């Protein structure tokens, strides 16, 4: 099989391959960029592999960066683009189930490809467009199947994160996980505890943003992989499969808010869950607010106003994912029609209050601003400077 029409990212990198070949070495596009080319999907990263050793690559190109030279990776800067070029290698001794204890540079493409995770990622392409497929990766692409290269147990012992990558690819590509590979995940699921939470977090977010999210979550359930992700075993995981649609999730905060909504989590429980996943404070705050917004019954306009636009957008996305499109539309319309959306919309500020109402600086100014916002949201006061000053003078004369 041959690639006759190069996608633009590979076309731009083609001279790099050709220059390595001109120096007498083998060079190939490998991995995800080959897979995505064959699937006619957007290419995110261009990975190159070569029989040339790192020092030999540095002699071929004028501008290089030692990105991960101990693992055989050198970054070549070519026409203002950075390309990571990795020497063919073998790996051995995975005592921590994450990283090889020893990396050996080799001249054999086959030795390099057989250490890769899945057959659909073990494809290589020459500069001529000829595809090297040593493990039936093209057949698995055609059958929409994710299959480990060689023995699944060996691949997952080399890097336990590959189990999360399997379900992530399933979600993104809408593929089936081959029975032997899924069985390997079930057998080795507990090894996921050896992996840094940050790495699991990255894969889980990509899975949840994929087009076949529920299919991948079903595989996590079937293999029990979810039990070894932070705190997921504490809640009813089946709800993520049974009470949602495959409506896309875009924002990370929406993912966590979906979990919080389905599992009825309060602010403290949300904080504990997201801290366990080492989520950023910004995402945590929005997810907490959106979840509480969804769980407010009944929801008043003041709660809606306090949530702010970011949390309302997240709550709307969650409602769409659980199939409550009419409720989502109503929430968005209700937000749109609020007389205020943020304090900056006020036609008054603390300085004006101090001058017009002869008030000293202090915490009472903040309290007055909050009171004004409440009255405007309740539609008991117009957002007009003169009207607000008049209201405050009467209020202060009575209190």
UniProtKB/TrEMBL annotation:
Cofactors named for this entry: Mg(2+)
Molecular function as annotated in GO: ATP binding; CCA tRNA nucleotidyltransferase activity; CCACCA tRNA nucleotidyltransferase activity; magnesium ion binding; tRNA binding
Poly A polymerase head domain: residues covered: 27-146
SUPFAM superfamilies: Nucleotidyltransferase, Poly A polymerase C-terminal region-like
Catalytic activity: a tRNA precursor + 2 CTP + ATP = a tRNA with a 3' CCA end + 3 diphosphate; a tRNA with a 3' CCA end + 2 CTP + ATP = a tRNA with a 3' CCACCA end + 3 diphosphate
Sections of the chain in a coiled coil: none
Pfam families linked: PolyA_pol, PolyA_pol_RNAbd, tRNA_NucTran2_2
Origin superkingdom: Bacteria
Domain tRNA nucleotidyltransferase/poly(A) polymerase RNA and SrmB- binding: 174-232
Residues given in the record as ATP binding sites: 32, 35, 116, 159, 162, 165, 168
Binding-site residues for CTP, renumbered to this chain: 32, 35, 116, 159, 162, 165, 168
Summary of the function given for this chain in its UniProt record: Catalyzes the addition and repair of the essential 3'-terminal CCA sequence in tRNAs without using a nucleic acid template. Adds these three nucleotides in the order of C, C, and A to the tRNA nucleotide-73, using CTP and ATP as substrates and producing inorganic pyrophosphate. tRNA 3'-terminal CCA addition is required both for tRNA processing and repair. Also involved in tRNA surveillance by mediating tandem CCA addition to generate a CCACCA at the 3' terminus of unstable tRNAs. While stable tRNAs receive only 3'-terminal CCA, unstable tRNAs are marked with CCACCA and rapidly degraded.
Family: Belongs to the tRNA nucleotidyltransferase/poly(A) polymerase family. Bacterial CCA-adding enzyme type 3 subfamily.
Self-association state and partner proteins as the record states: Homodimer.
Miscellaneous note of the record: A single active site specifically recognizes both ATP and CTP and is responsible for their addition.
Protein name: CCA-adding enzyme
Organism, scientific name: Bombilactobacillus mellifer
Organism taxonomic ancestry: Bacteria, Bacillati, Bacillota, Bacilli, Lactobacillales
């Amino acid at each position: 099989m041959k690639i006759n029409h190069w996608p633009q990212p590979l076309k731009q990198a083609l001279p790099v391959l050709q220059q390595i070949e001109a120096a007498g070495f083998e060079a190939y596009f490998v991995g995800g960029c080959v897979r995505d080319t064959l699937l006619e999907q957007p290419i995110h990263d261009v990975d190159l592999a070569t029989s040339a050793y790192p020092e030999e690559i540095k002699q071929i190109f004028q501008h290089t960066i030692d990105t991960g030279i101990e693992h055989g990776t050198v970054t070549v800067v070519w026409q203002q683009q950075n390309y990571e070029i990795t020497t063919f290698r073998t790996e051995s001794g995975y005592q921590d189930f994450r990283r090889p204890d020893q990396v050996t540079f080799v001249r054999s493409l086959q030795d390099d490809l057989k250490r890769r995770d899945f057959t659909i990622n073990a494809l290589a392409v020459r500069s001529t467009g000829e595809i090297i497929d040593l493990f039936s990766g093209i057949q698995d692409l055609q059958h929409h199947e994710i299959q480990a290269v060689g023995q699944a147990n060996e691949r997952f012992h080399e890097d336990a994160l590959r189990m999360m990558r399997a379900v992530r690819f399933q979600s993104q590509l809408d593929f089936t996980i081959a029975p032997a590979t899924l069985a390997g995940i079930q057998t080795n699921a507990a090894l996921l505890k050896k992996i840094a939470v940050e790495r699991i977090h990255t894969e889980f977010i990509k899975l949840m943003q994929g087009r076949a999210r529920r299919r991948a979550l079903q595989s996590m359930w079937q293999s029990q992989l979810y039990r070894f992700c932070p705190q997921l075993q504490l809640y009813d995981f089946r709800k993520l499969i049974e009470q949602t649609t495959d409506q896309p999730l875009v924002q990370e905060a929406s993912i966590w808010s979906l979990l919080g909504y389905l599992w009825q989590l309060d602010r403290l429980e949300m904080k504990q869950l997201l801290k366990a996943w080492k989520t950023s404070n910004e995402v945590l705050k929005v997810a907490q607010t959106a979840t509480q917004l969804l769980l407010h019954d009944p929801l008043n306009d003041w709660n809606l106003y306090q949530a702010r636009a970011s949390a309302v957008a997240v709550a709307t996305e969650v409602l769409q994912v659980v199939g409550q499109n009419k409720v989502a539309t109503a929430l968005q319309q209700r937000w749109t029609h609020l007389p205020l959306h943020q304090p900056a919309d006020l036609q008054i500020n603390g300085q004006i209050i101090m001058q017009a109402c002869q008030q000293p600086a202090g915490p009472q100014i903040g309290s007055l601003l909050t009171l004004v916002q409440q009255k405007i949201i309740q539609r008991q006061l117009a957002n007009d400077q003169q009207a607000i000053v008049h209201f405050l003078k009467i209020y202060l004369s009575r209190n």
